[in-house]
UniProtKB/TrEMBL annotation:
This is RidA family protein. It comes from Flavobacterium agri. InterPro entries: RidA (IPR006056), RutC-like_sf (IPR035959), YjgF/YER057c/UK114 (IPR006175). It comes from the Bacteria. PANTHER family: 2-IMINOBUTANOATE/2-IMINOPROPANOATE DEAMINASE RIDA, PROTEIN HMF1-RELATED. Pfam families: Ribonuc_L-PSP. GO terms for cellular component: cytosol. Belongs to the RutC family. GO terms for molecular function: deaminase activity.
Length: 126
């Protein structure tokens, strides 16, 4: 059965999509960008601060589904500049246990919403 996951601790959707959808024991998150859910403003300045906000948003969505990063089985990272990979990876890695890390792909793209430099989505399973 499909269940829509929503929390006010992550940015509200601004279109016809959900923060996450849970189907059985599997959770599919929408891509998160660096929007501070308390202010609605972008967290810009450097790629590390953007990535940290993205991961905090994903953490909130996972928690709304009674899950955590230890439940993540797959991650997709979209970045504007592959030259930022090391910086993004360092912040991303600080949220995950390397021994239990999910599968992942990282893709450089031509553009992301609102001009951000990183967007991340996840699939998790209880």
């Amino acid at each position: 059965m499909k269940k829509i996951i929503y929390t006010d601790k992550a940015p509200a959707p601004i279109g016809p999509y959900s923060q996450a959808v849970q189907f059985g024991d599997t959770l599919y998150t929408s891509g998160q960008i660096a929007i501070d859910p308390t202010t609605g403003h972008l967290v810009l300045g450097n790629v590390e601060s953007e990535t940290k906000q993205v991961m905090e948003n994903l953490k909130a969505v996972l928690e709304a589904a009674d899950m955590g990063f230890e439940h993540v089985v797959k991650t997709t990272i979209f970045i504007m500049d592959m030259g930022d990979f090391t910086k993004i990876n360092a912040v991303y890695g600080s949220y995950l246990d390397e021994a239990n890390a999910p599968a992942r792909e990282t893709v450089q793209v031509a553009g992301l919403p609102k001009g951000v430099t990183v967007e991340i989505s996840m699939i998790a399973r209880k």
